[in-house]
Amino acid sequence: MNFETIAIRTQTDRTQHREHSTPIFPTSSFVFDDAEQMRALFADEQEGNIYSRFTNPSVREFEEKMALLEGVEDAVATATGMAAVFASFLAFLKSGDHLLASKAVFGSSYTIITQYLPKWGISFDWLPTDTAQWQALVKPNTKMLFLETPSNPGLDVIDLAFTGQFCKCNSLIFNIDNCFATPYLQQPARFGADLISHSATKWIDGQGRVLGGVVAGNKAMITEVKKLCRSTGPSLSPFNAWVLSKSLETLAVRMDRHCESALLLAQFLEQNGQVARVIYPFLPSHPMCAVAKQQMKKGGGIVAFEIKGGLEQGRRFLNSVKLCSLSANLGDTRSIVTHPASTTHAKLTEQARQDVGITNSLVRVSVGLEHIDDIVADIDNALKSSVDEG
Ligand SMILES: Cc1ncc(COP(=O)(O)O)c(C=O)c1O
After folding, report:
1. Judgement on whether residues 201 and 259 belong to the same structural domain of the protein
2. For residue range 238-271, what is the model confidence (pLDDT) as tens digits?
């Protein structure tokens, strides 16, 4: 079956009420028929629900859908995207291991890699953009390679086919944050990714309502992540899982529109005299456009651009938008503009931001589902104001 059909028709449990839409199971625990069943479930001799920190039918439905949509065997849901990324590290890395990671990763992933993993004796090296230099960074204790493509917020694109081959040759766990693309636009498992994490808070919810995360992969590896989550407890709530399962039903149509509008906005910005640089994976001016087109169905819903002038012009632009929201989120029906240098990536040093292209004048737009003419008009007016007031 096709992506849209799987997203809509995967339903794990139908209750005795024969409901058509998916039900929700807001219960913290489950009852046992007798002492023997209770014992067998705890001993893993039988499959079944015990306690919602371990499993819950609403959560399971979301996990099963995500695994199918990513084209892998299994998935485990978490309370947030960061819980998913963190669990994907902790389940496989131990003291003495070495991690390779692309530097252009979400701010909190950067913090985990630079501040928390080293505390537990896990070292790291950043991968340069030039993949020809990667091999020299592999050490005997290198265990995992982690990356984000397209990256937040600079939309760097990394060649997944190359990375898959590189990880295979060096026996590395290939771990990817697929949040910006969603499984609709990019299925990293096709390129050999072992662990695929998401902030489901973004495009998967798509309506700015709930937090959630997921790690998907093969059965054996996800079993390890599940064991970690069962004991450490970053479980997704049944309500959030239900919202996310329903959201998956419309992911494809939403992403089609987000991508169509984002491309139009990117093309508009490229023609605008107030804009110094536009970054969008499917624009021919993107240095990795050809690779993006090989591994992604469409260019995604995020456009980044630099305003001519710098910080002050950027500040005026942000204060002048009227339709777009000033918010730290992305992947909503509502268009959102953000200034990554002072928000999501504020904890990085100025130098670290420069290294990954997050300049003080960089603005990130999460293109919503409003009419594209209204989005463009709002951004056009704000760009004019950013100059006029100067
Ligand atoms: C690429 C990426 N990964 C992970 C996260 C973290 O997700 P959450 O806020 O759900 O923990 C974000 C949040 O913006 C993100 O953009």
Report:
1. no
2. 999 999 999 999 999 999 999 999 999 999 999 9
Q: Is 355 helix (H, G, I), strand (E, B) or coil?
A: helix
Dihedral sign of CA atoms 296, 300, 306, 307 in order: positive
Instruction: Give this prediction's pTM.
Output: 0.96
The per-residue pLDDT for range 281-299, each reduced to its tens digit, is 999 999 999 999 999 999 9
* Helix (H), strand (E), coil (C) string for 305-346: EEECCCHHHHHHHHHHCCCCEECCCCCCCCCEEECHHHCCCC
State the CATH number of the domain containing residue 380. Answer: 3.90.1150.10
Task: Give the integer Cα–Cα distance in Å for 156 and 148.
Answer: 8
Sorted by sequence, the CB contacts under 8 Å of residue 112 that are 6+ apart come out as 82, 85, 86, 89
104: CA distance to ligand 1 center in Å? 13
DSSP 51: B
Q: What are phi and psi of 289, to 5 degrees?
A: -55, -45
Q: Is 77 in the pocket of ligand 1 (CB under 6 A)?
A: no
Q: Which residue among 179, 237, 343 is best mutated to probe the pocket of ligand 1, counting the most ligand atoms within 8 A of its Cβ?
A: 179
Range of the domain at 23: 3-248
